[in-house]
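Lecture 7 notes: from sequence to structure.

We start with a single chain of 1018 residues. Read the sequence below before looking at the structure.
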Amino acid sequence: MTDPDMADAIYIEPLNPEILCEIIRKERPDGLLPTIGGQTGLNLAVAVAKTGVLEECNVEVLGTSIESIEEGEDRELFKKLMIEIKEPIPKSKTVNTVSEAKEFVKQIGLPAVIRPAYTLGGTGGGIAFTDAELEKITQHGLNLSPITQVLIEQAILGTAGWGEFELEVMRDKNDNCIIICPMENFDPMGIHTGESIVTAPTQTLNDHDFQTLRTSAIKIIRALKVKGGCNIQFALNYNTGEYVIIEVNPRVSRSSALASKATGYPIARIAAKIAIGMTLDEIPNDVTKETKACFEPTIDYVVVKIPRWPFDKFETADKRIGTQMKSTGETMAIGRTFEESLQKAIRSLEVGRFGLGHDPKDKVCSDNEEIISNLKVATHKRMMYVRDAIKCGISPSEIHEISGINQWFLEKVKNIYDIGEKIELTKESILLAKRNGFSDVQIGTVVGKSEKEVRQFRISNGVIPTYKMVDTCAAEFKAYTPYMYSTYEREDESNPTDNDKKVIIVGGGPIRIGQGIEFDYACVHSVFALRELGYEALIINNNPETVSTDFDTSDKLYFEPLTYEDVLNIIEREKPYGVILQFGGQTPINMAMKLEEAGVNILGTQPSSIDTAENRNKFGAILDRLGIPSADWGTAFSFEEALKTANKIGYPVLVRPSYVLGGRAMQIVDNDEELKGYMKEAVNVSPEHPVLIDKYLANAIELDVDALCDGDSVFVAAIMEHIEEAGVHSGDSACVIPPQNISDSIKDKVIEYTKKLAVELGTVGLINMQMAVKDDVVYILEANPRASRTVPYVSKSVGVPLAKMATKIMLGKKLSELGLKEYKEPKFASVKEVVFPFLKLQGVIPELGPEMKSTGEVMGIDSNFDRAFFKAQAAAGVELPSKGNVLMAIGKDKHKIEAIPLAKEIIEMGFKLYCTRSTADIFKENGVESVKVPKIRDDPLVLEMMKKKEIQLVINIHRGSHPKSDSSTIRRACVELDIPCITRMSSTKAAIRAIKALTNDKISVNSLEEYYKEFNNI
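Now the structure, written as C-alpha cells:
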C-alpha cells in the first residue's frame, strides 16, 4: 500500500495523532476512513477526532462513525448497548484499578477473563485462575490499554461445553445486512480466535443455532450503525444451545482477510465502497460479474486456517496459548472435507510436517500423563497431542472432556489417523488417502516407499488432483476469476490455457520470523511486471493475509501448500513457459533443485548458482579467485570437526546451519563448552547440510547491499548501513540509506565487490550481499542471489521497483533497456527500524543477537539521519523523550568508559541521570554526576520508579544475558511498561542525536513523491 503508484499521495510516517493531524492540515482531505487499518486505524481516528482537527479542516468520517467505533470498542458502552437490545453477554464489569477487579471477582468467582480496551490481538489480556494471576494480568492490561480500562468477565470455557463462532457481517447506509462468512473455531472458548484453528463454514451448528446467531449478528450491526464490515464473536453452548456475545470489531479485521479468501468476497473493497455511500445492491460481484454484493456467498468446500507460532525462535517463551495472540502468521487450506483441508493446512505451515502424523518427523508420545497435560493446557502442539491420544486409545469423548474440543472435530481427527494406519500401495487405498489430505511423503512413510516412487505409482494409476474453483456462489453462476484449490474428484475446473507466455510465481507461505510480508510484496510486483510484458501470471500461495492471494492480483491463483508435490502437480497441469522461485524467500528456493531435476524451467538465477552461494566451500573458492576478503571460516558436520575449526579460527566465532533463513539457530560462541551445546541443536535444524563457522568481527560496521544483475551488467540499488554493530542479525538491526559513516573509497570497494560477485555467481535478477567494514577492510559475509527482506525498503528509499525490474530481467531485458545505470544515493535519509513480539511473549528477554527475532519493520524518512531515526523510533512505538529521567545500566567496564561522553550529553540536554552502582562509580570518577540506584535484588527501587512512570528512557547494555539478572528484569519491565529501552551503544548514540534534532524543532511531513521530487530531482 505504500507504493507511490497505489495512491495519489503516500505518506510513510509514524502512525500517531500528531503526525496524522499535520497530514490532514496539509492535504485537507474530504474524508477519513478509519475502519480499514485494523485496531491502529480505529485508535488513531478516535484520538484525532478528539483534537478537533476534523472540524477545523472540514473532514468527514466515512463509513462507521466515531460514536459507533467507541460503542463497539469501549467495553462499558458496548455492555450498555447489548443490555438495551437484549442480547446476552457474560457477566462483566469494566474497571480502572486492580482493587476494583478484585472486588468484582468476589461476585463472579474465578476463573475470570481480563480484556483490555482498545488493544490489538488481545494484548495485555488473559485468563486468571488465581488471585495472584488476577492482579498481575489486570495490572498488565491497565498499563497497555490506551484508556486504562479492562473488562473483567466471567470465564466461559470450552470444558463447560462452550464453542466459539465468528460471523463476518456487512451493512450499508440503507440498513441492508448480509453474512459474508460464518466461521467456527476448532479450539474451544478460552483461546483467542487468532490463536485458534478456524474452519469455514461452521461445521457443527444445526440450522436453528446458525439462524439464531445470524439474527443476533444482524441485530448487533444495526444497533451499532456500522457502515461496512464488522466481525462478531459468539460463544455457544453445544449442550444447552444458549449463546453470549464475546466481542465485536466494528472494522475490517484479521478475520475479514480470512473470510475474504475463504469466500472470494472482497470484504475490504466492498467496505470502502459502502464508506463512500454506495449500497450492497449497487456494487457488482467481481467474481460472477452478474450478481451484486448483496448476495450472501455460498461455500461448497471446507476451509481450515492454522496459526504459525514463533516459538522455534524463543525457547524461553511461555508456549501456552490463550486470550492473547502470540502467532506471527497463519496458513489456510481448501478442500472438499475437513480431513483433507486440515492435512493440507498442516503441511502448509512449513514446520517440517506433511500432515497429521504418519510422516518422517513423527514421534508419537505414549506417556498418558504428558498427553493429558497437553490436552488440558493448550500449546502450539495440542493438535499433535490429540492425534497421540487417539493412537494411545483415548476416545474422542474422553479427549472432549479433557480439552473442551467439540467431539465432531475429534472424530474427524480419529478418521485421519485410522485411514493412515491402513494405507496400502493400491489405487483404491491411495485415492482414499488423497481424498483425506494425505501427502505423497505420508503415504511413502506408511508403505515404505520414497516420495518419488509414490508419485510415479499414483500418476501411472491415474490418481492425480483435479482443481476446483472458489466462486462465491457454489457454481450457480459462471465465475470469471480463476481462484483454484486441489482435490481428488473427477471434474476439473482449472481449464489451463495453451499460452506459451505463461509464468508461475511460487509465493512465500505463512508469515514467520525471517520470512514476512516483504516476500509477498516482491511476488505481487513480479505479477505486475509479467502483465506489463504480456505474460499470463499465475500465483501459488497459501497465506490468507497477503495481496498475492487476492483473487484478482494474478491471472490465476492456486491456493495450495508450497511443497514439492503440490507445486509440481500444478506445473504439470498448467505447463508454463517458466517458474519464478526468486521472490518467495527460502520456501521456493528449498525446492529449486528438485523442480529443476523434474524438468521445470526455472527463470532467472539458476539453482546451481544459489547452491554455490550457500555452499561455503564453493563460495569461498570464488572469493579467493576474485581476491575478495572474507573472515576466516570453516564448516563442520560434527562437534569434533567444529571444535577443530573453531580452535583454528580462534574464538569468538559465529556459528549457524546452512540453507536456513532468518539466522535460524545462529549464535556467537565464546568457548568449547558453548560450541558443544550449540552443535546438538544446529545439526537438528539442518541435518543434511554442514554448520558454518565464521570468525566473529567485533565492532565492525555491517552493510547490506541490494543489486540487480542481468548476467553481464550490475546495478547497485542501495548500500544500507546497519545502526547496530555486526553481530546483530541484519533483520533485527535498524539501518539507514544512504550510509552515514563510511568513506567514498569504502563505498567504491563495496560496489566493486558487488559487481564482481553478482556476475561470477551467474545472477539473473536480484542479489543481496552482506558485508562488514573493519579497519577500512571490506569483508564479504554472505551473498543471496534472490530477493531479500530489504526489497520493499530499498525500492521505496530509492524510487526503483526492484522486484518488477528483476522480473523483466528474468524474461530477457537488459539493465540498459530498463534505464538503470550507476549507483546513486538519495539526498534524504530513510531509516528502517524493526518491531519485536516481546510484549506478547511472556518469559522472553528482550535482547538482540545473530538469530532474527523481529516480526515486522517500519520506516522513517526525513531530510537527514537524525530526524529520520526519530521518526523510525516513533513508528516502531518507541517514543523518545525530550525531558525527564534516564536510567543507565551498563555491564562491561569498556562500555562504561565509552558511554561517558554520552552521559554528559544526556545531562546537558536537561535529563536527570540515574545509574546502577558500578556505572555510577565509573561515571563519577570521570566527572559525571548521577543518582545511584541499588541492585534490584537488594531494593526494587528501579522497578517502582518505572511502574510510576518516573523513568522515561532506559539505556541497558548488558555484560551477558541471564534470565534472572538485573539486566533481564529491567528489560522485561520496559516491555511490560512501554518504556523505551536501548540495548546497544551505537543505538544510544543515534537516539541522543535524534532527541537533539527534534527537541526544539517541529516534525515535518512530506509525501514519498515530494521526497523524490525535492531531494532526487526526479
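Residues 1-62 form a domain with the Rossmann fold fold (CATH 3.40.50.20). Keep this in mind for problem set 3.
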